[in-house]
Amino acid sequence: MKISRRSFLKWCTTSAVALGLSKMELGKLEEVVMAAETTPPVIWLQGSGCSGCSISLLNSIQETTIDDLLINKISMKYHHNIMTASGDLAISALDQTVSQYNGKFILVIEGAVPTADNGIHCVLTERHGQPWTMLDAVKELAPKASYVIAAGTCASFGGVPMGGGNPTGIQRLDRNILYNMTKQRIINLPGCPIHPYTLVRTIIKVLLYGMPRLDEQGRPREFYDTEIHDICPYKEYDEVRQLGLLGCYEELGCKGPDTYNNCPHRKWNNKNNWCIAAGHMCIGCADSSFGKETIYKFGGGSYSSDEHDDDDERDDNEYEYRSHDDDDDERDDEYRTYYRYRYDD
């Protein structure tokens, strides 16, 4: 899937309003793209997950249509679900991209990465007659990428695959698997699934300005600085105990008070609706706890956010890894020092 530099710029111009690009940004984008050999090549890997983030991107109808996106807009060099090549031909395309664009391609990681038993629980393909696991792939490709984007909660924080005792040994990319291995901080774009606008705009912002301003969880502040509860349209309503009724769902286990995302602003399905407006509570799909706690609170026997008020990691959107409990504080300090990142109060 190839796109000329001029076609890419033409699409960005026609989509400027939807993407929130100013005339100055469009001019700078033109300078960046025309100075390059091609639009930024993208390698998209899929690990343990449901492919929901890929489907979300393909469902993008505000910025472009599915066929236009696949045929004309993305220089997608590898994505085993949507590319026509398979087997050795697909892997050769990946290898050629890495060789030709070493240090210049964008690596998008979707899905979690198992580490137990040398990653054998998620095998992408075979190379030289041996299983090539998702763990092998991210360790080989991430250090060679100009930017690494973790698309969705599974890639960012472990998500659902990390739940239920975590039998496959899912670990976070930024703080464990790829710690100290990437050229830049890994950009986490949590959400189940990731909003297509968030992903597309992040890529364009990276082209224009380089690394976006990230929070301590590696999320762009532009999209994840708003607590959903703070701007919930039902915040001042009485609490209700049945989904579908008009009111606040906090008593049912709504995760809005603990979740940061741009859902209320961006909405879904071409800005038609979002979870709470549709009569459901926020399930906290962009939070690091998603997939590791019961979603609903019915009858007092299930999840209650009050039960976790003493858990500082929850307040900071943190998650303690089972195998790294003793190293967390030291690892976080090293993480901040390595990237020379100054956190705001």
- By secondary-structure content and strand pairing, the structural class works out as alpha/beta
Largest sheet: 5 strands, parallel
- Poorly predicted runs: 32-36, 300-329, 334-345
| Portion in helices | 25-40%
The CATH architecture of the largest domain? 3-Layer(aba) Sandwich
Q: How many domain units?
A: 2
Strand content: 5-15%
- Biggest sheet strand order reads 2-1-3-6-7
Determine and state the CATH class of the largest domain: Alpha Beta
From the N-terminal CA to the C-terminal CA, the straight-line distance is 44 Å
| H-E string | HHHEHHEHEEEHEHHEHHHHH
- How would you describe the shape? globular
CATH superfamily grouping of the largest domain: NADH:ubiquinone oxidoreductase-like, 20kDa subunit
In short:
The chain has 14 helices and seven strands. The protein has 345 residues and is of the alpha/beta class.
Structure, described:
It is a single chain. The protein has about 350 residues and is an alpha/beta fold. Helix 1 runs antiparallel to helix 3 (about 25-35). The strands form two sheets. The chain has a five-stranded parallel sheet, with helices on both faces. It folds into two domains: about 5-220, 3-Layer(aba) Sandwich (Rossmann fold), CATH 3.40.50.700; about 225-320, Cytochrome-c3 hydrogenase, C-terminal domain (Cytochrome-c3 Hydrogenase, Chain A, domain 2), CATH 4.10.480.10. The longest helix has 14 residues, at about 85-100. The model is unreliable at about 30-35, about 300-330 and about 335-345 (pLDDT under 50). The chain has helices spanning about 5-15, 15-20, 25-35, 50-60, 65-75, 85-100, 135-140, 155, 175, 195-210, 220-225, 265, 310-315, 330-340, and strands at about 40-45, 75-80, 105-110, 125, 130-135, 145-150, 185-190. It has 14 helices and seven strands. The chain starts with a helix and ends in a 6-residue tail after the last helix.
